[in-house]
Request: fold
Amino acid sequence: MSDSPHKPAEKLSRRGFLIMLTGSALAAAAGCRPQDMPPVPTLYAPGSGIQPPNPASTGESTAAAIVGTFRDPRFGEIIYDQTLLTEVKDLYITQYDYGNTPEVDPTTWSLTVDGLVESPLTLNLEAIKALPAHEDMRVLECISDPVGGNLIGNLMWKGVLFQEILKQVKPKPEATFVRFYAADGYSTSVKVEWITQPMTLLAYEMNGEPLTVPHGFPLRIHMPGLYGQKMPRWLTRIEFIDFDYTGYWEGRGWSNIAAIKTRSMVRLPDAGGEVKPGAIVVIQGLAFAGKRDITQVEVQIDGGEWMPATLKTPKDPLSWTQWYLEWTIPAPGSYQIGVRATDSEGFTQESESTGIFGGAFPNGTDAIHRTIITGVEG
Reply:
């Protein structure tokens, strides 16, 4: 794919600046929001006498994973041979038109694939589910997720690879873009190379259950390497076209490419956490680079040398990478923890968090995440 997510940020045009001032960009950022999060847990540390229980497996489809979050007290110390899955209730939700959540009748719903194709096709949900099923673990991330934010989730997705549909519709050579239509009126477009990549998925299940209404029941699309802005829920039509269509968020200043940037974040210790000096703290978190692998994660304390963390390489290549580093709190006082990741194309995070929405506007962010904890006696 030729669209590099780490090219220099586009300059904010006069029009984009005016959009920002009028609040449209703010509304765009508000379009992605987390669902309720559990409270911040006690910090676990080896030798503290407080250890999390060993959670049970969640079933065959998630046998190599644990459902939960870093903020769940059970996972204060991650079990590193298992990948952390996001619960559906904790996955962020998006709305461009608040109050407009379509209740789609699955018995009358259908997906049309047409435009510049040899054989236009309309399929109902039963016909889609009759196609060969594919299930894997993959990340969904919002472009407006700020540095260290939680507008990101890692779930098991099941559906049909779009390659099965491509075989039937046969796009024409002049089809250079694809436009998406959704039941809530949302629309966007991508270059045709994004939807024709082998792992593009039309998903009808998440974490072993049918999609919920807020997450796009009965069908949504997932294209590896793109932010959620480009992957509509409640999908009703996919149209192959020969022009670059400007979608809803793109018309309000957000990136028209929306390719995922490499990023990493600290999940524990939590910002503002207090730890007894002399305790060994397991600094831990996640890293993600879209279709690129994470090859290295490094942790920095108070601007010192970058120290390599231990990585938990995911079984599924579109899942996130978990990492950890054991560190001893040397004395009372505040300590800044920073984290950076390097991907398989050699890119290493180096920028600091600045700009609109912590640098997420308009292209997403790859800024270094920094958080502060305190060593406290007693």
